[in-house]
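YM 10:42: Helix-turn-helix domain-containing protein sequence, as discussed on the call
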Amino acid sequence: MTAGTELLTVPQVMARLQLGRTAVYDLLRTRQLASLTLGRARRIPAHALTDFIHARLDQEAAA
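YM 10:58: structure's back
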């Protein structure tokens, strides 16, 4: 599986962003961070996390 198709779990995203579970689920709920559901499992494509980080960096730079 390449980095573009890698699917991350919520705990993996929590660790990478150094955020709590609630904060990550808030990002998912508000669709700031894209995800997909496989059965009952929520997965975040690695590229969606990268896109989110780049978007936030662009917002910070523009402020």
